[in-house]
Amino acid sequence: MPPRFSILFSRIDVELSNDPSMKLNDLARVLGVGRHYVERAISDISGASFRDFRKERRLKRARQLLKNGLLIKEVAGKLGYRSSKAFSRFIRTATGSAPSSMRHDIGDAPQMLPPLPQMQPQDH
């Protein structure tokens, strides 16, 4: 991972964890960098587009929230979906299963993207 992207990538991950529906332009503004820089960091580190990376983060967050017992409607709202129907469609497309099945097979659910590389602490 290029060192210049390490800290930025950590911040991207935190921001998308806090707001999984965040748009690229909003994320770039919050981070104080250009949108192309954010896209490049995500692409270089994960090999994915911003859109696919955000989908993976949403899927990961959905798994966590469902496992913690939240209702599908509540999870949909927290992830920025306007309806539980749209959220359910997203989950079915991404995993081939209903959202309710994610409560039980969290570790076995397929990922849309390959696992992210582990970040190494940097010496300053």
Report on the structure:
59% of the residues lie in helices and 0% in strands. It is mostly helical and 124 residues long. It has one domain: Arc Repressor Mutant, subunit A. α1 (3-18) packs across α3 and α2 (24-31) packs across α3. The longest helix is centred in the middle third of the chain and has 18 residues, at 50-67.
List the helices and strands and how they pair.
Elements: H1 3-18, H2 24-31, H3 35-46, H4 50-67, H5 72-78, H6 84-95
Helix pairs in contact: 1-3, 2-3, 5-6
Produce a short descriptive summary.
It contains six helices and no strands. 59% of the residues lie in helices and 0% in strands.
Protein traits:
mainly alpha, elongated, 124 residues, Arc Repressor Mutant, subunit A, single chain
